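tool=predict chain=A
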Amino acid sequence: MGNLYDFELEQLIRPEGYQCECGHTHKADMKYLKAGPGVIGYIAEGVKAIGGKNPFVVCGPNSYEAAGKRVCEILKENDIPFSLLVVPCEEGRIIEPSEYATGSIALNLSLHKECDMMIAVGSGVINDTCRLVSNLAKIPYMIVGTAPSMDGYASSNSCMEISNIKLTLFEHMPAGIICDTEIMAGAPMRMLHAGLGDMFAKYTALCEWRIAEIVNGEERCPQIAELMRRSLRKIVAGAGEITSRSVDTVTSITDGLILSGLCIAFIGSSRPASGQEHYFSHCWEMMSLVRGEKADLHGIQVGIGTLLTLKIYDYIKTLKPTMEHAKAVAGAFDRRAWADNIKRVFGSTADGIITAAEATGRNDESKRLARAELIVNNWDKILSIMEEELPAYEDIHALMEKAGMPMDPSELGYSVTDTVDAFVCSRDVRDKYLLSSVLFDIGYLNEAAEWLRKELASGTFTL
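tool=predict ok
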């Protein structure tokens, strides 16, 4: 049958799936997928493949101009009846993945009971909200991408803001994806940067996945990991051309972003695509919500998070963890000080974070020391994984600099303290074993945080 990582993108959604050597059948519940220059012309074919007869088209004001207008024209040309919603948004602002946007789409859909599918035209927020609403309404949806800005096109989860907390809600995959890379190449440059940042993250995510397999017993599929690596290598090779809006480069990035979502669906978790680097972004977004401020694009933040994570890995390579040190630090753990720190960082949302963290028992001393023992006993193997998976910090820094991407948290309005807080609290906001979790278990999280603080404050972090 061949290797999963040798398949072309459109072959990966074949109905029978792929029987993998890991023992699982990897399958994407998707009926239609087209990515490349000019593929918006396949809208009618995609609707028919999904089985839709009367779609509900959802756009934002910007995505309507970028592609929504053309989608409607093609539907009319093919005698496909449809209803249209341009989600209301104040001038100069963007749609948020919030209760308001979700409610607006759901209420308008309820007025069009004849609609049997949704066509989401946009990128992150439109995709996430339409995924959620279509799942609630029990109808399929298709996403028409307008920017190569994030890797959620093919995934089955939505990142939403609920009561100022950033949550991942598992919903369903899109039944179809159409990403016209000629259209996507015309997206704002910051959105192209965001897509590139989200792809650079796969280096540290794949490394962390292997570490979590050793320490936390998490299931890992080598073929899915290699599928992600090969896409990443292709993207990195052409990353320098992004400033010229090369359609070939945008197509490579788009393929990688779609592939990332498929990998998440295949394995049933976000492990192939996100790790510590994403949690800098998650924590910054939550800080901004509490402050009533607007966070930057997720992929922009993730790109900076990747640089930070690569730097912290360099620090980790200097450590020689022992069980004696791990036991001493674990025995001195101060639950009240831990909770007070979360309250300081996340304000009114802290109680929910603390309750969720305690429910998992991740601070439990016996569990912590059991993980520490696995880390200590496998330290040489973990160091080897880092060497095999991670690029040099300087290499990724050079690529981001050439592309004109932001590379320091201060460029996004986050202080040294904000960044250190995001690192320390990253292991608390969701139940995922991260690089910060490793450092916590072996008793070096606070030392690593102070090292990071000095690096950032010295101004030498971004070379």
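The longest strand covers residues 117-122. The first helix runs from residue 43 to 50.
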